[in-house]
Design goal:
single chain; 1093 residues; 10-stranded mixed β-sheet; 38 strands; 18% helix
Length: 1093
């Protein structure tokens, strides 16, 4: 029972024979479901009345056609017409731009015709269980996620493709079917044969008239036209009578006999005189006539037939250079084919299990396509065909490629997609002149570093590869980035704005890289490998969500500082002013090489245990942090020499401080230390001890055991006296004890030979003259200051503590070492002074203010080193000739039945390059087939990138061919009469396009129906003009004798046009004379073969 509610009308399973009237009356209808009924037709005008419909279900009815006004449903997203009796889908279907699902299975559809590529939103296409033979290549460019093709018994898609599923089918449509379509489209562009002007073209078998007489008439006109143009078009009309009539032709340069259902290639066709191009595809040919060696045949198309073998005689064709044998049942080629001067050979979609041996002997072969077969190996001998520029071995069963292929140094395009390779073939990386490489769905999971050798690549496809991150992101953005990150010739690289989650580790191979742009990605941390790039001096990581410590380092020191932070071999790392609360684990990479670590001006309260693994660390700066004690982990640093922890909150030093046996500098200013442990006396290598601004009340006598001290700073404490043990510090150079509570100094200080700096100001000495300067920086000044202070100390009461209460055992001095040579002492003194200076510099550096962040470098683009060698692929020599073209030129020059060579140059030969260029040089995919954007706003790549642009375009060779033919057309024979080339008109209706800049458009005079183009070759019986031809022409009289049968007079030229020019000397006369052109009233300009005011 029909159910109608807001926006919906549903009437299913009610045995309706027609669409209910209520449908047209429904307002705001969004969904219409009339499935499972007996409806035979949709009434005209219904769809325009329900234009807002989104979902239309007409499945399981008896519809035999759909009206063209279906195109008015521009909001339609779902269309279901399955299980009907449709013979075809209307062209209006391809105008439904919003359509997302099309279900047309279980019908009787034979082909899909129309602008399919318009459906840029189509996700599901079901054309299963029909009678479809050919799926248009445009389907491959749709953004489909589901394609159903099963149940089409005559479907022309190889089994090996169907077995590999949806992705393989889409790739097949985009690459292999694209080639087939180009052959069809461009061969269909032949000029309409003379005599058939204005007649309805025959493009399908349904266009062929049913009446045999009409067919015979069409055949007759086409054979007559072939006598004039050299082009024989028997598509769809190649009857047995037509084949018999071919004997009437004295010459045929191009023969198109497609779509005739032939089961064999007649000898009369293959042996047509002067045959240049033979197109016999789309038949059922199972055998080709034996013992025929076409002497002029240059292009042979036998694709889409039932061939299982070819005759050996074809191998003797002297100029056969292009052969298309796709979609047959061939398993081998005759050995005689090895002698062919073959250039283009297409063997795809056959039954080959290996490449035929005959191919190895083709010394001029440039393009070889043997896709969609059953190849299990590529013979090593293929490397002998060094002329190869294009190789397509996709859709086979290859697991490896032979190393010998590295000899194909000129190879420009290689397609190995849909083979179970598993790994990237190493030999491919040696083909440095590759321009296009397709490795789609070869089960690879990595890209080797050697891919960087393929610097000339313009297209790379590795769809379906399980690439690790971030290689998958790079590939999605631009596949060629996989080559760039391995290209060791680069000096700068731009990887900005790609959405990378991390920096590629592969960059470490780029030893010459000096600048790297990683801006505007999703990078949170940088890998250690970045630090291994020793030549890197410029880095941009702005716009990334960097985490600690990378974010802080970049903000304080600039992006370039991250290079050292990531360098596991760096000996110094500066994390000053980074606001760290703990030492980040990212620092672990420095455990083996780091020697100096600056952590000043942070918020550290301790150090992690893993710091003990830093076996080379000798300098640790911890100034201005939140330490309450010296971290115990420092005791486990075997080479620690300098510890700086000023301005913290340290209250005491560890009792085992003496375990730092190699400690040379201890700087603990600005803490809360009240006393030194007794073990400090074991620090025999200590050269600098700074305890200023603490809470010391005394120094232990054991301090005298630190015999290497050059600097002792105890300023700004609470000391009331100094121990006499200081007198044993014979290397002490600087003593700072200002701002304490000192009242005495030990007399032993006067005996220190190296002391040259003292600071005793702001103490409590009882001096006779308070104005005496107590700071000195010269030996003489030091002696004077100490003399004054020692003298003042004598007046201090005897109960003033003069010594410390230290355990006698702990205070025992170390045994006196043997006396060192003077030179060695001098070196030690110099080294100690350098250490003290370095400590001072470190302390000053820790106090520096935070400076503005250095700007990140801009405009980092990908550049190669100018001196890097640039590989160049060899191409066919510019002066090389296509053999069959040259043979035509030579043959036609000797043909007494044709005009002079200039006439052939102008027109008939032009058909040849049009065919060749058409087959080998297809246009790009339809612009309307571009995929929509991804949800994140990034443009979505086409389903398979450019879909192997040069596999579709074949190679540059076709365009080179076209250029050569054009050059040949412009050349004139030496024996041609002057002006012949300029005055010899064209025998075809549509003239060839001029070479160079286009001329201004001018209307072209076309003869009315029934008139042949001007001029045309007369039969041999028509002789040269009589002596009085000029007089006869002037008087308007006819030439002696009747014109030959079938010749017609040319009508007078239209107003504003001058008569056609006279024929060149030696040319045949026209059936009726034309009057000589009158003098022009205005200057004339020659355009092509006409004169225009």
């Amino acid at each position: 029972m029909a159910e109608s509610k807001d926006g919906e009308f549903v009437a299913t399973g009610e045995k309706l024979s027609s669409v209910p009237d209520k449908v047209a009356e429904s307002k705001n209808l969004r969904r219409l479901d009339l499935s499972d009924n007996e409806i035979t037709a949709i009434p005209a005008g219904l769809f325009p009345k329900i234009q807002g419909i989104v979902k239309l279900h007409l499945g399981s009815n008896s519809l035999s056609f759909l009206p063209e006004d279906l195109g008015s449903l521009q909001s339609l997203q779902y269309l279901n017409v399955e299980k009907n009796k449709l013979m075809a889908l209307p062209s209006a279907v391809w105008t439904l731009l919003a359509l997302q699902e099309l279900h047309a299975g279980h019908n009787q559809i034979t082909e899909l015709k129309g602008d399919i590529f318009n459906l840029t939103n189509l996700k599901v296409l079901d054309i299963s269980h029909n009678n479809i033979e050919i799926v248009p290549a445009d389907v491959g460019w749709l953004p489909l996620s589901e394609l159903k093709l099963e149940g089409n018994p005559n479907l022309r898609i190889p089994k090996i493709v169907m077995e590999r599923g949806f992705r393989a089918i889409m790739s097949y449509l985009q690459v292999i079917c694209e080639q087939h379509r180009l052959v069809e489209q461009h061969l269909d562009k032949f000029a309409t044969p003379p005599g058939e002007t204005g007649a309805a073209p025959i493009t399908t078998r349904e266009d062929v008239p049913k009446d045999p007489k009409e067919v015979a008439a069409i055949v007759g006109k086409r054979i007559e036209g072939a006598a004039s143009t050299g082009v024989l078009d028997l598509r769809y009309v190649g009857t047995s009578d037509a084949v018999e009539r071919l004997a009437e032709l004295s010459v045929a340069y191009v023969a198109d006999v497609r779509h005739n259902g032939w089961t064999s290639m007649p000898k009369s066709v293959l042996g047509l005189p002067q045959l240049v191009v033979l197109n016999a595809s789309d038949n059922h040919i199972a055998e080709v006539a034996e013992d025929v060696q076409p002497g002029h045949l240059g292009v042979l198309n036998l694709s889409f037939n039932n061939l299982s073998k070819l005759p050996s005689a074809l191998g003797g064709s002297p100029v056969l250079q292009q052969m298309y044998l796709a979609n047959n049942f061939l398993t081998d080629l005759p050995p005689s084919f090895a002698k062919l001067p073959m250039v283009d050979l297409f063997l795809s979609e056959n039954q080959f299990t290996t490449i035929p041996k005959a191919v190895m002997g083709m010394s001029q072969l440039a393009k070889l396509s043997i896709a969609c077969c059953r190849l299990r190996e590529v013979p090593a001998e293929l490397a002998s065909v060094t002329t190869l520029r294009f190789l397509d071995i996709s859709f086979n069963e290859l697991t490896t490629l032979p190393p010998s292929l590295s000899q194909l140094s000129g190879l420009n395009a290689l397609n190995v997609s849909f083979n179970p390779l598993k790994v990237f073939p190493k030999v491919v990386a040696s083909l440095v002149n590759l321009l296009e490489l397709n490795l789609d769905y070869t089960d690879m999971s990595e890209v080797p570093p050697e891919v960087g050798n393929l610097r000339r690549l313009e297209g790379l496809q590795i769809e379906g590869a399980a690439l690790p991150s971030p290689l998958d992101v790079l590939y999605a953005a631009n596949p060629l980035l996989l080559v760039q990150i391995h290209n060791t010739s680069l000096t700068s690289l731009d990887l900005s704005g790609l959405g990378l989650p991390c920096s590629p580790k592969q960059l470490t191979r780029l030893s010459g890289l000096t600048a790297l742009n990683l801006a505007k990605n999703k990078i949170a941390e940088l890998p250690p490998e970045l630090g291994q790039m020793s030549g890197l001096t410029a880095l941009n990581v702005t716009g990334n969500p960097l985490r600690t410590p990378f974010k802080e380092v970049a903000e304080v020191y600039g992006d370039a500082a991250l290079i050292d932070l990531c360098n596991a071999k760096a000996d110094k790392v500066d994390l000053t002013n980074c606001g760290l609360q703990q030492l980040p684990e990212e620092m672990k990479i420095h455990a083996r090489a780091l020697q100096q670590l600056k952590l000043a001006n942070n918020k550290l309260s301790g150090l992690p245990p893993w710091l003990s693994t830093f076996s080379e660390l000798n300098t640790l700066v911890l100034d201005n942090n939140g330490l309450s004690e010296l971290p115990e982990v420092m005791l486990q640093l075997p080479k620690i020499a300098i510890i700086m922890a000023s301005n913290n909150a340290i209250k005491a030093l560890p009792e085992n401080l003496g375990s730092y046996v190699h400690l040379q500098a201890l700087v603990l200013q600005g803490n809360k230390i009240a006393a030194l442990p007794a073990s400090v006396g074991r620090l025999s290598e200590l050269k600098a001890l700074s305890l200023a601004s603490n809470k010391l009340v005394q120094l232990p006598d054991i301090i005298g055991a630190c015999v290497s001290l050059r600097l002792l700073d105890v300023s700004n404490n609470q000391l009331r006296s100094l121990p006499r043990a200081l007198g044993r510090l014979t290397r002490l150079k600087t003593l700072k004890a200002a701002s304490n509570q000192l009242r005495t100094v030990p007399q032993d200080l006067l005996g220190l030979p190296a002391l040259s700096e003292v600071f005793f100001a702001s103490n409590q000495f009882q001096l006779k003259d308070p104005r005496v300067e107590l700071n000195a920086s010269t030996p003489a000044g030091v002696k004077a200051v100490l003399t004054v202070l020692v003298e003042a100390s004598k007046s201090v009461p005897s109960d003033e503590p003069r010594t410390s209460t230290v355990n006698p055992t702990a205070a025992a001095a170390p045994p006196k070492a043997a006396e060192k040579p003077a030179a060695e002492k001098q070196d030690e003194t110099k080294a100690a002074d350098q250490l003290v200076a370095a400590v001072g510099a470190l302390h000053q550096d820790a106090q520096r203010p935070v400076t503005p962040r250095p700007p990140a470098p801009e405009n980092i683009t990908t550049q190669e080193h100018p001196d890097a060698p640039k590989p160049e692929a060899p191409h066919l020599a510019d002066n090389s000739k296509w053999l069959y073209i040259q043979k035509h030129l030579d043959t036609i020059a000797q043909d007494p039945l044709r005009p002079k060579k200039s006439g052939w140059d102008s027109i008939p030969l032009m058909h040849v390059p049009r065919i060749i260029a058409a087959i080998s040089n297809p246009p790009p995919p339809p612009a309307a087939a571009a995929d929509p954007e991804k949800p994140n706003g990034m443009p979505k790549r086409p389903q398979t990138l450019h879909r192997f642009k040069r596999v579709v375009e074949q190679s540059n060779m076709a365009m080179q061919l076209l250029n050569r033919v054009n050059d040949a057309l412009q050349q004139r024979p030496n024996n041609a009469a002057p002006g012949a080339a300029a005055s010899s008109p064209s025998p075809v209706v549509t003239p060839p396009q001029p070479v160079g800049p286009p001329a201004q458009p001018m209307p072209m005079y076309m003869p009315p129906p029934g008139y042949y183009p001007y001029p045309y070759p007369p039969p041999p019986a028509y002789g040269p003009p009589p002596a009085d031809a000029a007089a006869a022409g002037a008087s308007g009289a006819a030439l002696p004798g009747a014109p030959p049968p079938g010749y017609y007079a040319y009508p007078p030229p239209p107003p504003g046009y001058y008569p056609y020019p006279p024929p060149p000397p030696g040319a045949y006369p026209y059936p009726y004379p034309y009057p000589q052109p009158q003098a022009p009233a205005q200057p004339t300009k020659k355009i092509g073969n006409k004169l225009k005011k």
